[in-house]
Design brief:
4 helices, mainly alpha, 88% helix, 0% strand, membrane, 115 residues
């Protein structure tokens, strides 16, 4: 039985072969993942600025250090961005390896049938 690939699978394999190493770089993962990090940080900032929790506002107002908030927000953005893109890279690489295994199984099967 011959293993056929869909057009999407063929395009994905060609794309991943060309871009696999480029997308593995941490700076690129950080840069491309920034929007996902901001999705988490923006609600935190809005929550803090609006002061919806009065007790938290009182405690934060008496012991507020803006540098700590900035560092925490940057850490959250950075971790989320890199983690998200690394997870996505792992998923793509797993899909690529599965397709390559299917391709090689198809070649081995074809070779065994001819012998």
């Amino acid at each position: 039985m011959k293993h056929m690939f869909t057009d999407d699978e063929k395009r994905f394999m060609a794309y991943w072969e060309q871009n696999r190493d480029k997308q593995k770089k941490v700076f690129r993962q950080w840069l491309v993942g920034l929007p996902m990090g901001l999705v988490i940080v923006i609600p935190i900032v809005i929550s803090y600025v609006t002061g919806w929790h009065k007790r938290a506002v009182m405690v934060a107002g008496s012991q507020f250090n803006p540098m700590v908030l900035i560092i925490a927000l940057l850490a959250i953005v950075t971790f989320t961005a890199i983690f998200y893109k690394q997870h996505q890279w792992d998923q793509y690489d797993q899909k690529y390896r599965e397709l390559k295994a299917r391709e090689s199984a198809g070649k081995n099967e074809t070779g065994n049938n001819q012998a």
